[in-house]
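Blinded run. Sample ID left blank on purpose so nobody reads anything into the name before looking at the predicted structure. Input follows.
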Amino acid sequence: MTMYTQRFSDTDMDRLEADLDMCNRVFVYGTLQKGQSNNSILSNSDLISSTTTREGFALGNVGFPYAFHESVVPAEYKKLLFPVQGEVYKIADMFTFASLDALEGYPSHYNRRIVPTASGLTAWMYNQDDWNAASRCSACKLEKDTWVWPKR
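Blinded prediction complete.
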């Protein structure tokens, strides 16, 4: 058990196992991408593809990215909805999934939902459902109508 999973109860682990059975892939778009600071959590996972989301998100920067799903973006900000560039990984095991949840603060900080990607795969994606958090965000990079998190 890793330092990220030590705080999970048996009930949490049962939920994680059920969610992993539902979908064993994750779409990452920030510090979890290859070459980024938190990618080591995915070290046992297989990178399947670099792709974009099919749905639009508003992407903000608070030192790490907040992707706001279109369902929480007010009408006057819908013009900010674009696909997000990222990577899809096959999640190695339940403990990797638990480590991702712990890092992302799921469900109290980030939420996660299964999203379709442009590559035709579906994957879990961590996103921010509190639009009020957008007021703390600076702009992210938009390239060819796609949100891109800068490689560091």
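Unblinding after everyone has recorded impressions. The chain has two helices and ten strands.
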